[in-house]
Amino acid sequence: MDDSSPNGDEPSPTGSADTTTGRRDVVVPIRLYKTITVFSTLIATACILGGFIFIDAATLQVSVLRRLLLRGLASIGLGVDQELFTGVLAIIGLSLMAAGTGVFVLSSRFRAPGMGNAQEDSDEK
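^ thats the sequence. predicted structure below, dont judge the formating
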């Protein structure tokens, strides 16, 4: 399977693969590009912020979120070990941060028609 276009001069509709990094850019219409950029940035920011909040709740015994979660679990009759609860909160926080990073990385693969590749425009060789 060949990723090059038939005439060699035009980029393929899915973008070109960089041979050194294997990165593939996807060319999309400008309106879709703007939508992807806005929402992926919003989702990534919310995930990173939420991750820090959960990490804070895991490390601080007086965190508001921690108290709310413990009260909620107690109201339904579940008692939770503090060390286990700390570990769960930390894992949730780190998972949210990883998800936010993944969303941002995947969204950076999109570009609009006419957008150049920063590596191609570089004067360094």
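Strands lie at 26-27, 110-111.
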